Amino acid sequence: MTIPKLQYISQGNTPEEHLENIQKACSAGAEIVELHLQNVSEKKHLKLAEEAREITSHFQTRLLIYNDYKIAKTVKADGVHIDQNTISNTKARIHLYTWQIIGGSANTLKDCEKLITNQVDYIHLGPFRSAETKENMPTVLGLNGFTVIIEALKTETPIIGVGEITTKDVKDILATGISGVAVSDEITRNFDSIKLFHQLLNASSIAEQRHTF
Questions:
Q1: What does the DSSP assignment read for 23-36?
Q2: According to the model, what pLDDT value does residue 131 have?
Q3: Distance CA 5, CA 180 (A)
Q4: How far is CA 171 from CA 13, 88, 204, in A?
Q5: How far does Cα 54 stand from its chain's mean position?
Q6: Is this prediction's pTM over 0.90?
């Protein structure tokens, strides 16, 4: 299964706002969205995931659920995105349908290697940059970090850049060997940016195809 080059990670001040933003992203042409809810009860998470599944099915958009493989299985989402240090990808794989995809988050080469060993379908690598300055923040990777990790990995697994990425970054990020980008802020601020992201991401794949033929 091919992994779209652009993923929208939902944002919102309330869980309901996450759903509204998913609907806007789908309307604007998003191919895959992640319902990224934290600190909600299992019951509410399930209800919202069911609603997200209805929205995404209507638009034929793929849906990922953040961190809860049981809910992903129940609502028949297209997959689950598992954050670091929560549950193992192998455990999730046992419970999910064979057609459901699993993604993981990584900050280092070692993280990536572990996820590839566990046979994830894609990896979010980041942060590319960070708006936060908290202690214990993962290392900001930037273009150099992406380049070093991608060159060392030499993997077929799609590596998706994440972390405050804007349309202005896309060309340089793709030049590092990254497959695509997962975006939250920039898209939530302006859902029309999805079209521009798609153009920039596809321009690179057309150039690659020309190069190969």
A1: HHHHHTT-SEEEE-
A2: 76
A3: 4
A4: 31, 33, 8
A5: 20
A6: yes
